[in-house]
Automatic annotation (TrEMBL):
Name of the featured protein: Quinone oxidoreductase 2
Keyword Oxidoreductase annotated: yes
GO molecular-function terms, A-Z: NAD(P)H dehydrogenase (quinone) activity
Organism from which the protein derives: Microbacterium ginsengisoli
Pfam families: NAD_binding_10
Length: 281
């Protein structure tokens, strides 16, 4: 059985390859697809060029592959079209399983990042390719910049209100993907993957305080205040508004909760918030 991991030079992709090997997959059975193959040369597996914007590289990468992990593109606004290239290639190659890293509760989410994931899920369903959906909640590492700033300023500012986030570390999600790729009878399954403990920004401030051994205060902002502050810090208006909208989604509870599926898949508790942040730092 040959497994292809797309985006293998990225943070999540690299970890998936590592977890596949740790779970007993032979290096010869793993193919790492990367836009720039040299960036994945140290993974210890076969590396091929795979660029979502170059369909010919995707088709070539899928030759002889049985199972594919489609890691969602990092290019917001272009994701759905790029993912379609992989879906089409998976159908043409006759793969037995396509796994896709979607967003938590995609079917009901109003998160600003949800639409392209929903569109991709619909495209996968329409294609008829045997598929499994890995609906990942937030990555703890996404908070790294905020925590680093809090460590120097003593302030953690956000428009997240009292909303909670059931985040987990990338390695947790990577381990879950590896477990699914190596398991049988996964086609048709949908996993809502989240951390064991949902935290709010008061908890995040406390985590930053513990890591940097200083007082850190959570300053609650409105969405407009958050966007204005980010623009003042140097972000363009579009990016500032986008980040503020993500905060608003948190305040609405879009990333709260979890049913224990992630811990069950990986066979251990998910990485605690402070531990995940320390590792990322």
């Amino acid at each position: 059985m040959t497994i292809l991991v797309t985006g293998a030079s990225g943070h999540l992709g690299r970890l998936v390859v590592e977890r596949l090997l740790a779970r007993g997959a032979a290096a010869s059975d793993i193919v790492a697809g990367a836009r720039t193959p040299a960036k994945a040369a140290d993974l210890g597996v076969r590396v091929v060029e795979l660029d979502y914007t170059k369909p010919e590289t995707v088709a070539a990468a899928l030759e002889g592959v049985d199972r594919v992990l489609l890691i969602s593109s990092s290019e917001v606004g272009q994701r759905a079209a790029q993912h379609q290239v992989v879906i089409d290639a998976a159908v043409a190659a006759g793969v037995e399983l396509l796994a896709y890293t979607s967003i938590y509760r995609a079917g009901e989410s109003t998160h600003i990042l949800a639409p392209e994931h929903v569109e991709t899920e619909a495209a996968i369903a329409a294609s008829g390719v045997p598929a499994v959906l890995l609906r990942n909640n937030w990555y703890t590492e996404n908070q790294l910049a905020d925590v680093q700033y809090a460590g120097t300023s003593g302030v953690l500012a956000a428009a997240a209100g009292d909303g909670r986030i059931a985040s987990a570390s990338r390695v947790d999600y990577a381990d879950a993907a590896a477990a699914v790729l190596l398991a049988d009878d996964q086609a048709g399954r949908v996993y809502e993957l989240a951390g064991d403990v949902a935290w709010n920004y008061d908890d995040l401030a406390a985590a930053a305080a513990a890591i940097f051994d200083r007082e850190v205060s959570y300053v609650r902002q409105t969405v407009a205040e958050r966007a204005a502050a980010l623009e003042a810090a140097g972000l363009d208006a579009g990016t500032a508004g986008f980040v503020a909208a993500m905060d608003a989604s948190t305040a609405e509870g879009q990333l709260d909760g979890g049913d224990g599926s992630l811990a069950a898949l990986i066979g251990r508790p998910t990485t605690p918030l402070v531990e995940g942040l320390r590792a990322a730092l």
